[in-house]
C-alpha cells in the first residue's frame, strides 16, 4: 500500500495556533471559525490574510457584516494595513434619503444571487486565501435550512476547484444556530468568551475537527492584544521530557541543607507551608538567589507581593535582588489573576524554562492563585500538569501555601500535599516571652531527611537554622510546653 501523501498546511500567522494545528490549516480546504460576537473571529481571520500577504499569497476578504471602512478601522486598531488584500463589500451603503444602494443589500436578494456574486469575485481575483464574513448573514437570506445547506455545499465545491484555502466565519447569532454545517467543513475551530464575576473576560478556543490532520485537542486560552493574537496551548507534560542531573540543590545554608537531607532535589516540587509572616517567601527567595549565585536562572511569580515589598524585604535580609534582576539572571513577575487566564500563566512559566533555562521556579502563593479565580473548575488539574512538566525539565519548584491563623490551631485552607514531593512546615510558637519560629520537614519523597524540629530566625544579614529543639513538646501546635533548662533555644547570635 502506498504511503499517504501529507497535506500541505498554511501558517495562520499565529505561531501558537499553528502549534495546536500541527503546522497550520490544510491547504485548499473550507474551514469554519465560529464564535459569539466579540470572541475574536475577525482578528484571527485578518491575521490569516496578513500572513498570506507576507509570503506572497493573494488574499480576499468578502464581508457581509462589516463595511470596508469598519474592517479597515478594526485592522488599524492593531496597527495593521489592508494594503494588498482585496476587500469585497456586500453589505448595504444607504448614502441617500431614497435608500439608493451603491453596492448590494443582501436581505433583498435571493441567496443564489449572493452566492453567485461571491463565486464570481473569487474566480476573477484568483486568491490563494479567502475569508467569508459571515455565514450568519447567508443563513438569514436563505430562510430555509435545506436550501442554505445545499448552497454551502455548492460553495465548497466551487472553492475546491479554485484551489484556495477558505476561512468562513459564523457568529452563531442567527436562528436556528446549529452545528449541522460541521459535517460540510474540512475543519472547525470554535472560539468562546467567558465573562468572569470580576476581572477581564477569558477567551479560549478549541479545534472541534480537522479532517485527515493531526491537532491538539481540548480548550486553549488565548488573548487579543494590540497587534497580536496570543494563543496559549494547553500543556501536555509527557511531551516535554528532558535529561537532567537529579542532584540536590544547596540553599547556601548548611544547617538548612542538613535538615533537608542535602538540599532540594532537582526535578521535584517543594511546598513551604505556614502562617503569614513566618518566613516562607524569604526562604523561597533564599533558594532563588542561591541558584543565581551559582550562575543559574531563577523565576519568581508573585500573586501577593509587589516589587516594592519584595525589594524592602530582601534588603532587610541583606539580599541584593536589583543586580540579578537587571542582568536577567532573576525573573520576577507580578501576576494578577483577575486579568490573567490559567493558560497564560502556564505559558509564562514555560517561557522562563524553555527560553531562559530557569532552574528554580517559585509560585507565591497558591492561596491567591486559586481563590481569586473561583470560576475556573480545573485549576488543580492544570497546576498538577504544570508541576509534572517542571519536574520533567529538572526544575526545582517551590510552592508557597499560607495557613490560616498565627499560633494555636492553624488551619490548612486546602489539601495540596499530593502535588508536592517535599513539604516544609514553618510555625510560630511561644517561648521565653517571645514569639519564635520553628522549621521542620514532614515529607520528602526523593530521599532521607531529618526528623528534627529546629528554630528558624531571620536577621538583617540573612537567616539561620538553629539546633534541634529537644526540650519542647507541642511546638507544631504553636503552644509548646517546656521540660528542659532555662535557655535551650538559639543564643541569638546574628550569623548568616
Automatic annotation (TrEMBL):
**Known Gene3D superfamilies for this protein?**
P-loop containing nucleotide triphosphate hydrolases
Question: What EC identifiers does the entry list?
Answer: 2.7.11.1
Q: Which residues form the KaiC domain?
A: 8-245, 247-479
| CDD domains in alphabetical order | KaiC-like_N (cd19488)
Q: Give the UniProt keywords, A-Z.
A: Hydrolase, Kinase, Phosphoprotein, Plasmid, Repeat, Transferase
Protein name (database record): non-specific serine/threonine protein kinase
